[in-house]
Design brief:
This protein has helices spanning about 5-15, 25-40, 60, 65-85, 90-100, 110-115, 125-150, 155-180, 185-190, 195, 205, 210-225, 235-245; strands at about 50, 55. By secondary structure, it is mostly helical. A two-stranded antiparallel ribbon has the order 1-2. The longest helix has 28 residues, at about 155-180. It starts with a helix and ends with a helix.
Length: about 250
């Protein structure tokens, strides 16, 4: 995996004066949450994908029951790791609460539900944006906010970094939609064309490839603008924008 979410935790902490290595526990928690969501997303009842990260999906190797339980265990362990994170007790508690919200029905799961019920239907722009901002963007936001909060950032810094994460998450998902149509299976590690086969609500389906690329670039520019009040300590976050928008 790309491990973007744990990197965002540590990079956000650095951006507000923290040390990345102090927040490895929280960073790992976000990789576990993300991985659990992929294990469940690949299940036959969801996207029914046979490959993930260049290998057979969990359920293809170990069966559906084990895949479901593995996802449950990963999510539960993530909350344990967050509880063990370094930081002021009130900051740790805030991160646990926010992460639970953004990984649940008001965030990641909420986006997945709308994504699932939208399959095969004509959807409007608002629905596609809701799916992207919740299914993908919510965990980006939670990761960045977690790093900042644990490193004792100011509220102004948290607000700016939240804006960065929201725009970065949108750029990432639009790019992901594009790669599902024209990406290299060897590079992206999963079957190309899954969204089309499942009649998913995506940006290319709604806007076409050219306009989708424009929207991804605009979201990336907005992410960079959100960091304008930060100095060199946020350079890694800036480099993440280029990585997301240029990946193939």
């Amino acid at each position: 995996g790309k491990r973007l979410r744990p990197v965002l935790v540590m990079a956000a902490a650095e951006a507000v004066g923290g040390k990345a290595q102090d927040y490895i526990s929280a960073a790992c928690a976000f990789e576990l949450i993300h991985t659990y969501s992929l294990v469940h997303d690949d299940l036959p009842a969801m996207d029914n994908d046979d490959y993930r990260r260049g290998k057979l999906s969990n359920h293809k190797v170990y069966g559906e029951a084990t895949a479901i339980l593995a996802g449950d265990a990963l999510l539960t362990m993530a909350m344990q790791l967050l509880a063990e994170s370094k930081g002021k007790p009130e900051n740790v508690l805030r991160v646990i609460r926010e992460t639970a919200i953004l990984a649940g029905s008001q965030g990641l799961i909420g986006g997945q539900v709308v994504d699932t019920i939208s399959e095969g239907r004509e959807v409007d722009v608002a629905t596609v944006e809701y799916i992207h901002r919740h299914k993908t963007g919510a965990l980006f936001k939670a990761a960045v906010r977690a790093g900042a909060i644990l490193a004792d950032a100011t509220e102004a810094q948290i607000t700016a970094l939240t804006s960065y994460a929201e725009h970065l998450g949108l750029a990432f998902q639009i790019k992901d939609d594009i790669l599902d149509l024209e990406g290299d299976e060897q590079k992206i590690g999963k079957t190309v064309g899954s969204d089309t086969r499942n009649n998913k609500a995506t940006y290319p389906a709604l806007f076409g490839l050219s306009k989708s690329r424009d929207k991804a670039r605009q979201a990336a520019e907005n992410a960079l603008l959100s960091l304008q009040d930060f100095g060199a300590e946020a350079d890694f976050l800036r480099s993440m924008v280029n990585f997301v928008i240029e990946r193939d």
